[in-house]
Amino acid sequence: PCVETAIDCSAVEPTNACFEIVANPEFEGCCQEIPIVCSGDDLCQVYSCDETIGCVVDDKVCTPESCFVTNAAFTEVPGCNPATGSCSYTAKDCFTPTCETNGCDVDLNECVVIHEDNCACECSPTICESFDCVDGKCVSDP
Known about the structure:
two-stranded antiparallel sheet
């Protein structure tokens, strides 16, 4: 007479580290390969599986559009709101001294400065760094 022996599923190797071998509930004595579910509760983390090492956890990458930066209020994972998992951005700070106007060049993703012709300068090195003040106007150094 034949005697059936159940297979020890723990002795069977999976295809790669993203699978595990378990007993097949439909066919007694058989094993089946199922994918490992890599997950977690941190909304600012990305959970994935690497075939050689198994589950991998990486920080979510928040990439701002031109003239924006990741919101400094969220520092654990730069720019990621831990309550929602969404990326948060603020406009790039292009603050300039009194004698200049400012803005952000979207194509260059850089702050740009325009020296005003009719500004009321205080003529201090911190206000008109490379400019002289003549009759209350900023004038470039020759």
